[in-house]
Design brief:
The chain has eight helices and no strands.
């Protein structure tokens, strides 16, 4: 079975690995097919969202990310590529990033907010509404993984910082997009259509 514990850490039990692998297989099946949610492959759902914004694949591929977006990408990429930062990457990706669509209290959920602010339709935002449901399991799995690999106070503190910092980076990304939109330098269609 594939190794899912950090280098130098005590291995997860056979049953923990089996549980993680089975749950991950279910998530991968949904991401690739959309059959469990009754939608589409999740890449297709994101492409539908981008098309609703007026961005085809060629335009998307040629675009340069805003500085705050690049900061988010760079932080997570650095963490996941460095084996010594495995726990930081796991916390940043499986808890903070996967948890971005879980708003249920207080503020509006991302799909509702994007619909209102950017004039999109609910069908344009299926990527976010599907992930609001699916990512509950992803985050639970991430919490289990990070709990298993952060075996001392130092690792736990670094993982907690990674979650907090990643959330701050996400906020910066969304705020940067919104500010550009408000200034009129980020053009989105008033009404969308796929």
């Amino acid at each position: 079975m594939a190794r899912i514990n950090a280098p130098g850490e005590s291995p997860m039990s056979h049953w923990q690995k089996l549980s993680y692998t089975c749950e991950n297989s279910r998530f991968m099946y949904e991401e690739e097919t959309g059959r469990l949610s009754g939608t589409k492959n999740h890449v297709k759902l994101m492409q539908d969202f981008l098309l609703a914004l007026g961005l085809d694949d060629q335009t998307r591929d040629a675009a340069k990310g805003l500085p705050a977006t690049q900061a988010l990408i760079d932080y997570r990429m650095e963490a996941v590529k460095d084996p010594a930062k495995y726990h930081i990457g796991a916390a940043a990706v499986t808890i903070a990033s996967e948890g971005q669509n879980l708003e249920t209290l207080g503020a509006e959920s991302r799909d509702v907010l994007f619909e209102r602010v950017y004039g999109l339709r609910s069908e344009d935002l299926l990527f976010f509404s599907v992930h609001q449901i699916e990512d509950v399991g992803h985050v639970r799995q991430g919490l289990d993984l990070v709990s298993d690999i952060c075996t001392d106070d130092h690792l736990q503190e670094e993982a907690l910082f990674a979650v907090s910092h990643t959330c701050e980076l996400f906020y910066g990304m969304y705020e940067g997009i919104y500010q550009k939109f408000q200034k009129g330098s980020l053009e989105l269609p008033v009404t969308s259509g796929v």
